[in-house]
Amino acid sequence: MANSSSGESVIHRFVKIVSAFDDTHRSLTVADLARRTDLPPRTTYRLVNDLLLEGLLQRERGGQVRIGNRLWELASRSSPMSGLREAALPFMEDVQSVVQHHTTLGILDGNDVLYIERLVSDSSAVNITRLAGRLPIHGTSSGLVLVAFSPASVQEQLLSRPLTRYTDFTITDPAELRRHLAEIRQRGFAVMAGIIVPESSGIAVPVFGPDNAVVAALSVVVPRQEENVPARVQVLMTAARGISRALGWKGKLQGAVRRSQGG
Amino acid sequence: MANSSSGESVIHRFVKIVSAFDDTHRSLTVADLARRTDLPPRTTYRLVNDLLLEGLLQRERGGQVRIGNRLWELASRSSPMSGLREAALPFMEDVQSVVQHHTTLGILDGNDVLYIERLVSDSSAVNITRLAGRLPIHGTSSGLVLVAFSPASVQEQLLSRPLTRYTDFTITDPAELRRHLAEIRQRGFAVMAGIIVPESSGIAVPVFGPDNAVVAALSVVVPRQEENVPARVQVLMTAARGISRALGWKGKLQGAVRRSQGG
DNA sequence: CTGAGATTGCCGTTGAATGGCAATCGTGTG
DNA sequence: CACACGATTGCCATTCAACGGCAATCTCAG
């Protein structure tokens, strides 16, 4: 921007400002915002005013500002995600009513899994997923399922990056991760125990779009003591097929499946 | 912006661009975007590039662009709406499983009702609500409930504006609308038949926050032939109380209610 | 009343943003 | 294969929206 000391674009500053809000900072004073974003106060006040005019931010009773409804509206109205979310929701409810643990729906975005829906269960395992929250790919069963069924290039990209260790069970060795991905691809689901928090396990299965590409991962988070994998995988698989079909998926014609008819 | 022929801010142009996407235009070529927003092509290309860099837009396989996941993420992560939505969802499911018709959750935003969640029923009444969609306040039972329970100033604001007629049943007379609002406030719910589309009725009840202020309207959309109001109001009331309580509402100590204990 | 912090008005400066033009790229068409 | 048409990008002179420092004002707790 003109006379800017930092050389950032207005758009970048906009993102900086919006990013300054999070779960624990849902509303901020403009002065706080200036500090958190490291922008000159006067500039922050001016920019915030523009955003208030457009409804992208909203003023609260206390004079603080928060994310505006209009921003959410613009983002949600035509986001391809909302179709996926809406298609998945009823099936996720089914899963949750049977499994009685956290059910989540995640997509691949950049180097993370982005959770676009979750149903929480009060009395259940520790759950660090948050709506519109991100977790590292190799730290979640959802992430590994998504990568396992994505084009090879995606897998290579994951393996070429350093893998942060979160617990004793986090897989940080590329070769080992590669083996896991192959197994997931072959079995059709992922079960990972304590790879990001020691207490809980994730079980995840892929959701496919019309072109047979993975579009999301459906998963449940359960306490490690009560994984009960076989039963839960079946529930997840059933739901995932339902979601896939609702999205226009026609069913994968894989060799091993549907032999029954001829016999 | 510098050398701008229109005198708009970058922020305003950003909103213009994002607004160009809707349900039927989920992805656009940049040239289309320039036409739809009425911005000079070269300017549009540059701005779109900035947005792509920030992830606010995303490029598709075909070269078109669409709303980026990052925009949704930023909007949802700390939006006060997500708390409301998440609290309401389980209760909405309850309602929908009993009523078997469209269930919606709406809030007041500007001159409209903004729908922040909806559960659709395939074989049900016509439903023109859309997720993250808007409808005029006086055209929906949700809107009337929200206004009826809002501070008087909100009501006056609605009554001072011209009221568009959508069907023969739309209330466009301020005096009549005022009577309706009073009745809704007194009864505690709204039933409006065919005020925006002739075929369907809306039944709506208020959801309250910790400070006893309305924060949302819970509603069902049913075919006009099968309103079955009394039963449905009870279902909605029950659910709305559940949501309110989940939000920290302590229960309104109104004269008429909870007499039983003493008697 | 006083001080600390938040917010706004003022204003000279300037480079980010702008948009026209022409070249290039991509795709379909005769 | 030549040609047309539209999308996209490189170039670049122009300029005003954006910038940010400073001081005044407002707020509020102590």
Report how far apart the termini of chain A are: 71 Å
Given helix and strand content, the structural type of chain A is alpha+beta
Enumerate the strands of the largest sheet of chain A in spatial order, edge to edge or round the barrel. Answer: 6-5-4-9-8-7
**What is the 3D form of chain A?**
globular
Keywords (chains A, B): DNA-binding, Transcription, Transcription regulation
InterPro entries (chains A, B): GAF-like_dom_sf, HTH_MetabolicPath_Reg, Tscrpt_reg_IclR_C, Tscrpt_reg_IclR_N, WH-like_DNA-bd_sf, WH_DNA-bd_sf
Pfam families (chains A, B): HTH_IclR (PF09339), IclR_C (PF01614)
Protein name (chains A, B): IclR family transcriptional regulator
Task: Describe the fold and architecture.
2 copies of one chain form a homodimer. With 263 residues, chain A is an alpha+beta fold. The first copy, chain A, has 2 domains: 10-75, Orthogonal Bundle (Arc Repressor Mutant, subunit A), CATH 1.10.10.10; 80-246, Beta-Lactamase (2-Layer Sandwich). Chain A contains 9 helices and 9 strands. The first copy, chain A, has a 6-stranded antiparallel sheet, with helices on both faces. Chain A has a 3-stranded antiparallel sheet with strand order 1-3-2. In chain A, β8 and β9 (214-223) form a beta hairpin. In chain A, α2 packs across α3 (41-54). The longest helix of chain A has 20 residues, at 80-99. Chain A is globular. The relative contact order of chain A is 0.10. Residues 255-263 of chain A have low confidence and may be disordered. The interface between A and B is large, with 53 and 52 residues.
